[in-house]
Amino acid sequence: MAIVKSLFQIKGSVGEYTFYTMRGSKKQIMRTKGGPNKKQMENSPNFENVRKNQTEFGGCTKFGSKCRKAFGELYRFADYNLNSVLTGIGKTLMKMDTTNEPGKRSLNLSTHKEMLEGFNFNKGHSYTSVLRVFPAWELKRDALQAVVTYPVINTGIDLQNFKRLPFFRLIIAVGTVSDMTYDTVNEKYKPMVEALHGASETLVGEWNSTQTILPAQSMTVQMHESRIALLTDNVTVLLSMGIEFGNVGVYGEPVEANNIGSGKVIACR
Is residue 77 a contact partner of residue 266, using CB atoms and an 8 Å limit? Predict the structure, then answer.
């Protein structure tokens, strides 16, 4: 049903045409009705490629979501949409599968770990530009454990306090991401190791003044030992590092400053 707002301005439908205005614009737009209906999209051979693309896209979005969880608490420092970029990485992984047909291609991160190694959570202030010393680290894949050893940090030289906040703390995380395959029975993508898909453990250090010399220190983070028995070659283990800045609370104590920080995936094993 059409609503006539003036002699030449209509809102609604007239025959095969629909008239409307877009939010923020006074211009009237006309379009024709049509397009495939739901039944055609689900069953018509003409839309087979569309269905395949939709299925693979669903698998890629699930992959991206679980990668974000594998970063532990560090994902919250991202200054851009991580999910869209990680979904794109998932699509790239699918293209690397030359064995399965489109619509059923796998996401095998375990054979292309370089796709996430070195992945930055920030575009504006990268982790290595904020913390200008690089710690020694060891990622023990079979133990789902990481040991990170920081050298002395002279904040006047080694720290880019880009928000000029009074406190900072160091954070590390170990996470896991499983390869994903297409389940022909349920017609959807699923991880090969469900319990290790998007699992993580985060270790948050103590608050320190941004005007100090911090002694050398080591931090060890480990996922629960019950998960070790579930580890297979189809699971990728990630080590992520980050730094967070804090403000002064009501009683002078350090408090989080609205997720101000930087992070990066250091290694994938």
Answer: no
